[in-house]
Amino acid sequence: MECVFGLVGDGFALVVADTSAVHSILVHKSNEDKIMVLDSHKLLGASGESGDRAQFTEYIQKNVALYQFRNGIPLTTAAAANFTRGELATALRKNPYHVNVLLAGYDKDIGPSLYYIDYIASLHKIEKGAFGYGSYFSLAMMDRHYHSGMTVEEAIDLVDKCIIEIRSRLVVAPPNFVIKIVDKDGAREYAWRESIKDTSGAPTS
């Protein structure tokens, strides 16, 4: 029951993802970070089969870094989105990745942007979007409350509305979410919304 969603605000873009790692009826962990920091000003939120998701996002991250190393300049957000789309399209005809991606970034001369890339390599530039079962509720909430030029506070309030709706309406709702933001100061983790905390190690008596 994965959920990844994002939106563009005034001078920033943010991506939110659940943090549950599940297989069949089992929850393996509830602190899995599904939003990768591609470089200093890009975020890649992904949903899909855990193996495909981990392999594909790492592959994109390393190739974006390789481009910057070879050429001395980073890819723009649009260029990174088109590269990601191209790799999905190539794999689609060989060994497809079952991965859906929201790519958010900030470019100095362009500002924030958000790209929707699905597993069959469709690419769209959007202001708000979502993947997974939670998208039924998060998209509905964003359709109702989203407006262009939102402040960070307004966007986080909308994110919290979406999370509350997902938790209350989805039959098997993920308990925890991570929020990451990218703006002129770079890409970074903003906050967690947790209702269950993972405990490591053996229980103490």
Which key features would you list for this structure?
205 residues, 5-stranded antiparallel sheet, 4 helices, alpha+beta, disordered C terminus
Q: Can you characterise this structure?
A:
The chain is an alpha+beta fold and 205 residues long. Helices cover 33% and strands 35% of the residues. It is built from four helices and twelve strands. The chain has helices spanning 50-71, 77-92, 135-145, 152-169, and strands spanning 3-8, 12-18, 21-23, 26-29, 35-39, 42-48, 99-107, 111-117, 123-126, 128-132, 177-183, 186-193. The strands form three sheets. It has a five-stranded antiparallel sheet, covered by helices on one side. Strands 5-6-7-8-9 form a five-stranded antiparallel sheet, covered by helices on one side. The radius of gyration is 17 Å and the shape is globular. It starts with a strand and ends in a 12-residue tail after the last strand. Mean pLDDT is 92; it is low at 201-205.
Brief sketch in words of this structure:
It contains 4 helices and 12 strands. The protein has 205 residues and is α+β, with helices and mostly antiparallel strands. Helix 3 packs antiparallel against helix 4.
Number of strands: 12
Structural class: alpha+beta
Strand order of the largest sheet: 10-1-2-11-12
Radius of gyration: 17 Å
User: Which stretches are poorly predicted, pLDDT < 50 over at least 5 residues?
Assistant: 201-205
**Helical coverage, percent range:** 25-40%
The biggest sheet, with number of strands, parallel, antiparallel or mixed sense and barrel status, is:
5 strands, antiparallel
Strand composition percent? 35-45%
Shape: globular
Cα distance, first to last residue? 34 Å
Counted by DSSP, the helix tally is 4
**In sequence order, what are the helices and strands, one letter per element?**
EEEEEEHHEEEEHHEE
Write down the overall mean pLDDT: 92
